[in-house]
Hints:
By secondary structure, this protein is an alpha+beta fold. The protein has a domain at 148-271: Alpha-Beta Complex (endopeptidase fold (from Nostoc punctiforme)), CATH 3.90.1720. The protein has 5 helices and 8 strands, in the order αααββααββββββ. The chain has helices at 17-46, 60-146, 156-168, 186-195, 205-208; strands spanning 173-174, 183-184, 213-215, 225-228, 236-242, 245-251, 255-260, 268-271. The strands form 2 sheets. The protein has a 6-stranded antiparallel β-sheet with strand order 3-8-4-5-6-7. A hairpin with a 3-residue loop joins strand 6 (245-251) and strand 7 (255-260). It is rod-shaped, with a radius of gyration of 64 Å.
Amino acid sequence: xxxxxxxxxxxxxxxxxxxxxxxxxxxxxxxxxxxxxxxxxxxxxxxxxxxxxxxxxxxxxxxxxxxxxxxxxxxxxxxxxxxxxxxxxxxxxxxxxxxxxxxxxxxxxxxxxxxxxxxxxxxxxxxxxxxxxxxxxxxxxxxxxxxxxxxxxxxxxxxxxxxxxxxxxxxxxxxxxxxxxxxxxxxxxxxxxxxxxxxxxxxxxxxxxxxxxxxxxxxxxxxxxxxxxxxxxxxxxxxxxxxxxxxxxxxxxxxxxxxxxxxxxxxxxxxxx
Length: 273
């Protein structure tokens, strides 16, 4: 017997081939399972997750409530629209009423003014008519007292009558060719004024400017005839009424007026009374 026979050998025992193969198979299966699981995880991570939300089921009661709410909303909207239309109509009616009232006031004021003007015109016409009648009567008395036809040398009283006549026509209209009783041109007024005292003058201003004795403008007397333009070719005439004033039918815009000599200085004057 060897002296080392009782010492256990230090060499590892050999594994059998079948155990090694079994262990290899198990390891391979584990690796395969991990690979499949990894692949499946990767695929799951790549695909988005879809989540489904479940809506509450619309019951019959809820449907009725929704319908009623919609009807109420529609009725409220209709009421608001109707109220808005009524408000707009009321505002329009108020505005129209205000405009109608303003127009009515204007028309009433216009009628009142027209009536007042008509009344004043009637009063002025009546006054002029009375004045003319008085002048005619005065002229008739003067003529019968003298016992002869009134000539160009009638006294001072006739000049006053001429002046009263032309002043009575102040405010009458100017009309070319007018000879009264409510509208005149310049020579028509002068002719009518002197006719009241029995003095017959030519019709037109050119002839009236030479009808009497030429006098200086510094020596004027009431009743003198003023003229504008040259003697014999005058284009306008009037009557001097004293105190630096004259009366004449000036133009369509002024009519018969009384003005100072400075308003339109005359060229010359003639005296027929």
